[in-house]
Amino acid sequence: MIVLDEKSGIITLHTKNTTYQMKAGSHGVLLHTYYGPRIGDGDLSYLIRCTDRGFSPNPSEAGLDRAFSLDTLPQEYSTCGVGDFRLPSLELEPEDGSRLSDLRYKGVERRPGKYNLPGLPAFFGGEEWETLTVTLEDAATQVEVELLYGVLEEEDLITRAAWIVNRGSRTVRLRQAASLCLDFSGPMELITFDGCHAMERQMSRAPLRPGIQSAESVRGTSSHHHNPFVILCEEGAGEEQGLCYGAALVYSGSFQAAAERTHLENNRLTMGIHPYHFRYALGPGESFVTPEAAMVCSPSGFGEMSRHFHRAIREHLLRDPWKGERHPVLINNWEATEFHFDAEKLVDIAREAAALGIEMFVMDDGWFGKRDTDYSGLGDWQVNQKKLPGGLEALVPRINELGMSFGIWVEPEMVSEDSDLYRAHPDWALGVPGRSRTRGRSQLVLDFSRREVRDHIYGELKKVLDSAKIRYIKWDMNRSLTDVWSAALPPERQGEVYHRYVLGLYEMLERLHTDYPDVLIEGCSGGGGRFDAGMLYYTPQIWCSDNTDAIDRLRIQYGTSFCYPVSTMGAHVSAVPNGLTGRSVPMETRGVVAMSGTFGYEMDLGKCTAEEKETVREQTKRFKGWWQLIQEGDYYRLTDPFGGGAFTAWEHVSGDRREALVSIVMETARATPPFSVLRLRGLDAGALYQVNGSEELWRGDVLMNAGWPLPLPTGDYQAMQLYLCAKRPSSC
Ligand code: DGJ
Questions:
Q1: To the nearest 5 percent, what fractions of the chain are helix, strand and coil?
Q2: 3-class DSSP state for residue 149?
Q3: I need a surface site. Which of 96, 237, 634, 689 has the fewest CB within 10 A?
């Protein structure tokens, strides 16, 4: 609910459990007054103290009032160069070469429904949303900033974006345009999700210390290294308790999430496109829209925060027709064959899989052009007839005859120097004339900011997609952007290329979504290098990591789960010893971990023992029976795998709390281990649950408070699952 009090300038946004407030204060400065547990909509600006602080300057309108300073007031969208020395949200560069912004309040409007952002992914929905627009103006340049807020009351979610319009008569360049700015008081801790290729989203937590700490990427993608999702929380906040704020950027390019502990010992968080090499020209009448950011405040810990993000993403970011639908259980040939396969090998893998209940076969890298290694072929999207005689027209019906659908891998943003495409259009790759180009995985990046490049690639992909019944696309992207310079733009507009690249990518994905609405697209960037809310709008599942080791995956999937729902996490069972870690984990454990994701296999099942095959058959059946509970249920992290405990456990609970699935993975076994109990969460306290079909019934409050007695492990990396079904008061 949005409450406007035009007389006092108070603007209050209420969600079910939280309140957010701002105020158009003296001299038209838009102040941020409160964000926290739900309270009334009275004026909270008493929380703001104005005192004269040394070296905090005063705007001219304040006259001799030295207590009024932009450097000390909590700002709703911070400026720079005119007295606020903390993190800026907006930096303008007009033709005179100055680098300031000075925003003052112009007006406010509210309407039912949710705003859209042209060309950008954004949360969507109908009457369950309300939109607030607050207009600010930089009088000298006549640049207007419309601050957009989407309020999804039920999920305690507030989205934000800024729509920047040049209403003046001269060109202005944007040097920075944040999506979100939040000022908080009190000590806080910052949680980020960091890592590297094959070890993404490892959770890291530390108190904010004076100065700026950030999670950011200048790689042109959101990256393996830092995720565009951060949490600020009070000390002592945990899964079930404490005030915390999660912020996710709905964007897939370079980003910055910066948190500053200020000279007043309070905090500012800004989040948006990274300012590195960002310089966007706005001619008279032109506008720029920032990506969207989504915030959830939870007064009761991280678990609640995550569940709000999960539901909001599932319902309002993932799109039809896959939203709420079971994604097929698939088998992918990459870890089994890499580039070395032919049609017979693929059909063999598919045949084994089909017999065990697997529903889709995905042909990974190596099917096109000259592609026997990763040194060549990218850009030549024509089937390699030596490997696949007769092309997809011949292969796909053979897969379909096995009762399986067919999916294909592509990497459309890339080109190999050893390719016909590169030989014909060397200038289509990003690169600065006069400098050698930097390779990554021996490949170059196509300039997706250019329409003719996108049109060509799209045309080539379309021929492939139209040549056979293709039901799934794995859209991969295997390097960071370097040498970012576009032959299509003049020197003064090169600062637009990073962002235009991302807009080009989104435009391609939107075209695919429109032309092939039923095709499921899985995002991938060397695993989870572009796992962000922006990609989820187009690709409702994303390959979580190239690391398929079930034990490493416990931590990767744990970190990912703080913002992103289980249904979006690409997770497969692969062969052991694992190719990256050398570790051997039992098939059952690998299945239990992959089941908390999209679930599939990535191995040659023909090499499995009869017993292993039976496990695969049984796991696949189990997943098909439980997918709704797993993917649509509420998710509870029961332990912290970074905490050094003997086991990791998590739980899925159905919306009506009548069913739950608990998954437990033991880490390395030790002699004389202590007895452990596992306290469950989210159950109906008064209900009686049957566990794994046994006769004995367990009360919900007993399982949640006294806990479930764990058996003693008898070996490394064992796993178990508890399926709970409420028998009384009514039966499942
Ligand atoms: C990186 C992906 O993450 C892998 O799954 C695989 O598709 C390879 N690329 C293929 O080159």
A1: 25, 35, 45
A2: strand
A3: 96
pLDDT of residue 398: 98
As given in the structure block, the two tokens for residue 381 are 């999207």
CA distance 707 to 243: 26
Q: Determine whether 659 is an active site residue.
A: no
CB burial class (10 A; 0-12, 13-18, 19+) of residue 85?
middle
Give the chain's residues under pLDDT 70. 728-732
Query: Which tokens hold the place of 680?
Result: 């469950």
Calpha distance 454→443 (Å, rounded): 17
Tens of pLDDT, residue by residue over 104-146, are 999 999 999 999 999 999 999 999 999 999 999 999 999 999 9
Please indicate whether residue 365 is annotated as part of the active site.
no
Atom 9 of ligand 1 has which residue's CA nearest to it? 526
Tokens of 224: 């393996």
Nearest residue to 18 (alpha-carbon basis) of 155, 182, 132: 155
**Three-state DSSP state, 216:** strand
Query: Strands, E, within 208-356: which ranges?
Result: 211-217, 229-233, 244-250, 255-261, 267-273, 280-282, 287-289, 292-298, 330-332
* pTM: predicted TM-score of the whole model, two decimal places: 0.98
Nearest CA to ligand 1 atom 2: 526
Length of the chain: 732
Contacts of 218 (CB under 8 A, 6+ apart): 254, 274, 276, 277
| DSSP type of residue 579 | T
Of 722, 611, 719, 594, nearest to 669 by C-alpha is 719
Q: Tell me the C-alpha distance between 471 and 331, whole Å.
A: 13
DSSP string over 412-425: TTEE-SBSHHHHH-
d(CA 705, CA 390): 62
Is the Cβ–Cβ distance between 684 and 717 less than 8 Å? Answer: no
Instruction: Out of 409, 479, 569, give the residue to mutate to test ligand 1, the one with the largest number of ligand atoms within 8 Å of its CB.
Output: 409
State which H helix or E strand residue 515 sits in.
Answer: helix 497-515
Amino acid, res. 497: V
Residue identifier of the C-alpha nearest atom 11 of ligand 1 = 365
Residues 472-509 have pLDDT tens digits of 999 999 999 999 999 999 999 999 999 999 999 999 99
Residue 495 has what pLDDT?
98
Q: Phi and psi for 617 in degrees, rounded to 5? A: -60, -45
Q: Which two tokens stand for residue 418?
A: 């050893």
From 43, 348, 374, 612, active-site residue:
612
Helices 610-632, 587-595: crossing angle, 10 deg rounding: 20
